[in-house]
Amino acid sequence: MKGKWLGALVMMPFILFFAVFQLAPLVWMVINSFDSQSEGWGLANYRDIMTSPFYLQAIRFSFYITFFSSLYGLLIALIGSYSLRQLGESRLRTLVMSFTNMTSNFTGVPLAFAFVILLGANGCVTLMLRHLGLLEDFSLYSKYGLMLLYTYFQIPLGVLLIYPAFDALKPDWRESAALLGAGTLHYWRFIGLPVLAPALLGTFVILLANALGAYATLYALTNGNFNVIPIRISSLVAGDLYLDPNMASALGIFLVLVMAFITLIHKWMMRRSYTQVNS
Length: 279
Known about the structure:
By secondary structure, the protein is an all-alpha fold. The chain has a single domain (53-278), classed as MetI-like (MetI-like fold, Orthogonal Bundle), CATH 1.10.3720. The chain has helices spanning 2-32, 44-51, 53-87, 91-103, 109-119, 124-131, 143-162, 171-179, 184-212, 216-222, 229-238, 245-278, and strands spanning 35-36, 40-41. The protein has a two-stranded antiparallel sheet with strand order 1-2. Strand 1 and strand 2 (40-41) form a beta hairpin. Helix 3 packs across helix 9, helix 5 packs across helix 10 (216-222) and helix 11 (229-238) runs antiparallel to helix 12 (245-278). The longest helix is centred in the N-terminal third of the chain and has 35 residues, at 53-87. Residues 59-266 form the ABC transmembrane type-1 domain. This is Putative spermidine/putrescine transport system permease protein. It is a multi-pass membrane protein. It is found in: Cell inner membrane; Cell membrane. Pfam families: BPD_transp_1.
């Protein structure tokens, strides 16, 4: 009993920290999200989010970039993880995994600066491709340019999450499938991908959450001129022309609900993955 009280006492600073910096702001956001500057208390802020073309465009752009960057990042990470598995125990695999660990944290202003140097309007790669006649209408600051940026920082995280999932594939399964006359395509269609499916879906959900909440890189690159949900929240809290922290709270709660839903899906997918691996 004494040990439990001692453990609870040691945990008190962490509990207080969590309450002050996580729960208190969330409660404040929930309360203020129902307070509209024009109509007072009610659902006016949420009604504006669901009916305003401007906010609906921000939601649409956020979901579009998030979905496709997560999908492309997942596919590239899957191919990369499989290739690393094929290398076996080697220095190259260790080097690539170490590099992946490092680049998974390469986000924010440094990443935006790197992309401006490479693919900006006067970036070195942009000028070289234009000189070769291979790149005419591409803009880093467009929807497709931002999708490329998002995909880049999704790949390392995808590799780190997918790579351990290949442990679920037993080497003798492939040998048994080959003895039964199954080719590579049949093996991956009926054995490999079904076994990896829960982990792939779980990784995809995490990549969705990772991209949906991204802010620093996008703001540093566009200076807040691209209409997505995190930028809209920032402009309502610290903008130069129009401030409405209550609407920002409503947008924040909307984002929290979406990410909570994504997290629940991820938990369910990972539970299925662990159950299948252990069976």
